[in-house]
Design a protein that fits this description.
By secondary structure, the chain is mainly α. The chain folds into 3 domains: 196 residues, no CATH class; 132 residues, no CATH class; 99 residues, no CATH class. It contains 23 helices and 6 strands. The strands form 2 sheets. Strands 1-4-3-2 form a 4-stranded antiparallel sheet. A hairpin with a 5-residue loop joins β2 and β3. α12 packs across α14. The protein is rod-shaped and about 140 Å long. 25% of the residues are buried.
Length: 551
C-alpha cells in the first residue's frame, strides 16, 4: 500500500502515539500520517507456548499465522478488519483469562486470551452478558462498528445497543464511548430512524432556537416553557410565581416579545444566538479513539439531525453543524437578567413580598419591561370591570309597570295638572300645524342658481329642501326627554338624583333602561352602569352625554 493509497483510505491510521488510555486525541480518529521510520519500536507479536500445542484449534493457528505476517504498521486498522472477517464465524468454549490493553485487538492477545475472547463473543451473540474484562468488550465493539459478523448496519446497531444496555452500570467507561460511537455509527451508515433517539438533546436545543426565532408566532405557554428552561434565573421557584402563577405565565412571554427586538438591535445578534451561541460547522472525525476500518469509506454524504443541524461528508472529510462560541458565559444569555428584573418589577406592581433588590440593568430594557407590565395591568383591570347588560325583551313590560306605578302614586290634583298640560300641548301643536301653508315655497328669480349654490352635484327640488330642514330640526331637538336630561345632569354634576326620581315618581331601573335603550340606538352601547355603588355615566361616553343634555 502506497502513501497515496493510505491518504484515501479512512481510518487506516497509526495507534502508536501515547494517548493516555482510551479516549485520547490520537488513535482511530487521527488523520495524521506518520512515516514508518518515525514509528516507535514495537515488538512483533509473539505467541504463547500454547501456540505449538496440539490442542490449539486450527482456526486459531491460522489466525496466528496471519498476525505473524501482518507486522504492526500504519495499516493496523485494516489488518484487524481482515483478521476479524476471517474469524467472523468462529466460536470457542474455554475458560476466561484476564486481559487488559489500550486499543485492544487480536494482535494484543496471547493464544489463551484469543480463545477467551471468542468464547466471550459466542456468549454475547447468544444474548448472554458475562462479567468479563473490559478490554474484551472493546474488541467486540470494534467488530460491530465495522459490521463484522452482522447482516447489515441495522443489526450491528441493535447489538451495540444491547451491549450498552447490559453493561452501562458495570462499565461506565464503555457506556461513555458507546454513546459517541453509536451516534457516529448512525450518521456514517445513515440510519435516520435512530436519530431522534440518539440526538434528543441536540434536537431539543434546535427546537428551543426555533421557538425563540418565531416568538411572535408561537403560543404563550410554549414560549414561557422555553424561556425558563434556558434561563439561569429560576423565576418559577420564587414567591411571586407561587402566589401569582397566572400573572407570571402571562407577563413573561409578553416581556420577551417586547424587549427581544431591542436586544437584537443593540447586540447585532438574533435572540437565539444570544441564548445558545453561534451556529458553526466544525470538523468531526468519525469513531474518534476507536479501531475502525471501511474498505469502501463514505466519500459524499449529508445527514440532517434537525432543520437547523446536520452532518456533512465532502471528499471523505466529515463536518458537524453545532452551536459554539457563546456570547455569554452561561447558556441562556440575557434571559436570566430579563426574568429577574421582570420578577422584581411585577412584585412591586402586584404588591407581592418579599421584594427583590435592584441590580444594574440596561435602562431601556428596564423601561421596556415596566411598560409591558403596565399594559398588562390595565388590560386586567378592564377585564375585571363588571359588564352591564340590558334585556330589551323585558323593556316594554317594565315601561307598562312603571306607568302603572306612577299613576297610582299621583294625587287627584297632580292628575288634573297633568291633563291640563297635555291639553295645552295638543292645542299648541294644532295651532302650529294650522298656520303652515304647504303651498308657500321659497322662490327666487333664478331657482337654478339657488340649487347650484346648495349642491353642485345635483338639482335640489323644493320638496327635498323642506325634508332636509325638518330632519335637521328633529336632530337638534335632543335624544333624551327633559326628565332624562335632568337625571343625567345630576349624575354628571353630583346632584341629588334620588330626590329627583322621587319627585317625578320614576323608579331608577325604569329611568336607566330608558336612557340606555336610546343610547343603543344612538351610539350602539349603554351609557349608564351600576356596579353596586349607584348609577353612573360610563367615563368613555361622558362628553357625548354632556353635549346631548345641553342641546
Amino acid at each position: 500500500m502506497t502513501n497515496d493509497d493510505f491518504k484515501t483510505s479512512y481510518s487506516d491510521m497509526p495507534l502508536y502515539e501515547d494517548s493516555g488510555g482510551f479516549g485520547g486525541s490520537s488513535g482511530g480518529g487521527s488523520w495524521d500520517y506518520v512515516a514508518p521510520e518515525q514509528l516507535p519500536d514495537r515488538p512483533q507479536w509473539q505467541p504463547s507456548p500454547l501456540a505449538t500445542n496440539v490442542d490449539v484449534p486450527e482456526k486459531i493457528r491460522q489466525l496466528v499465522g496471519m498476525m505473524r505476517r501482518d507486522n504492526w504498521t500504519i495499516t493496523q486498522n485494516r489488518a484487524f478488519y481482515t483478521q476479524a472477517l476471517f474469524m467472523a464465524d468462529y466460536k470457542d468454549d474455554t475458560s476466561i483469562v484476564p486481559f487488559h490493553c489500550y486499543y485492544p485487538t487480536y494482535h494484543s492477545m496471547t493464544i489463551e486470551q484469543l480463545r477467551s475472547y471468542f468464547t466471550i463473543r459466542h456468549l454475547l451473540r447468544q444474548g448472554k452478558y458475562p462479567d468479563v474484562p473490559l478490554s474484551y468488550l472493546f474488541v467486540y465493539v470494534y467488530e460491530l462498528l465495522m459490521k463484522v459478523g452482522c447482516r447489515d448496519a441495522e443489526e450491528a446497531f441493535e447489538l451495540l445497543g444491547e451491549l450498552r444496555d447490559n453493561y452501562s452500570n458495570a462499565e461506565p467507561n464503555l457506556a461513555r464511548y458507546l454513546k459517541l460511537w453509536m451516534r457516529d455509527f448512525v450518521v456514517y451508515n445513515n440510519l435516520s430512524s435512530h436519530i431522534p433517539e440518539l440526538f434528543a438533546a441536540e434536537r431539543h436545543e434546535d427546537a428551543q432556537a426555533l421557538v425563540l426565532a418565531n416568538r411572535n408566532k408561537v403560543g404563550d405557554n410554549l414560549l414561557f416553557q422555553t424561556v425558563i428552561s434556558l434561563s439561569n434565573y429560576n423565576i418559577t421557584g420564587g414567591a411571586l410565581y407561587k402566589k401569582q402563577r397566572e400573572a407570571v405565565e402571562a407577563v413573561v412571554p409578553r416581556v420577551i416579545r417586547g424587549v427581544a427586538g431591542l436586544l437584537e438591535l443593540r447586540t447585532h445578534h438574533r435572540l437565539e444566538t444570544l441564548c445558545l451561541g453561534m451556529k458553526r460547522q466544525v470538523s468531526h472525525p468519525m469513531f474518534q479513539a476507536a479501531i475502525f476500518y471501511d474498505p469502501k469509506p463514505v466519500r459524499e454524504q449529508e445527514v440532517a439531525i434537525s432543520l437547523r443541524r446536520k452532518y456533512q461528508c465532502r471528499s471523505g472529510l466529515w463536518t458537524e453543524t453545532l452551536y459554539s462560541q457563546r456570547l455569554f458565559s452561561h447558556r441562556g444569555g440575557p434571559l436570566g437578567t430579563i426574568l429577574r428584573e421582570t420578577d422584581r418589577l411585577l412584585r412591586i406592581s402586584l404588591r407581592v413580598t418579599p421584594k427583590i433588590a435592584q441590580k444594574p440593568v440596561d435602562l431601556a430594557i428596564r423601561n421596556g419591561i415596566q411598560q409591558v407590565i403596565n399594559d398588562w395591568m390595565a388590560e386586567r383591570a378592564e377585564a375585571q370591570r363588571p359588564k352591564v347588560t340590558v334585556d330589551f325583551t323585558k323593556l316594554d313590560r317594565i315601561r307598562t309597570d312603571a306607568a302603572a306605578v306612577r299613576d297610582a302614586l299621583l294625587t287627584d290634583e297632580e292628575r288634573n295638572e297633568a291633563a291640563a298640560i297635555e291639553e295645552n300641548n295638543t292645542e299648541s301643536t294644532s295651532t302650529k300645524e294650522d298656520n303652515i301653508d304647504p303651498t308657500v315655497i321659497p322662490t327666487t328669480d333664478k331657482p337654478e342658481e339657488l340649487a347650484e349654490e346648495v349642491t353642485p352635484f345635483a338639482k335640489v327640488t323644493p320638496s327635498a329642501t323642506i325634508a332636509s330642514s325638518v330632519t335637521a330640526d328633529d336632530n337638534t331637538a335632543g335624544r333624551f326627554s327633559p326628565e332624562e336630561k335632568m337625571f343625567l345632569d345630576r349624575l354628571l354634576h353630583g346632584g341629588d338624583w334620588q330626590a329627583y326620581l322621587r319627585q317625578i315618581h320614576t323608579p331608577l331601573g325604569v329611568m336607566m333602561d330608558g336612557i340606555n335603550n336610546k343610547a343603543m340606538d344612538w351610539i350602539g352601547d349603554v351609557v349608564l352602569e351600576d356596579d353596586g355603588d349607584g348609577p353612573k355615566v360610563i367615563e368613555d361616553y361622558s362628553e357625548d352625554v354632556e353635549k346631548e343634555i345641553n342641546k
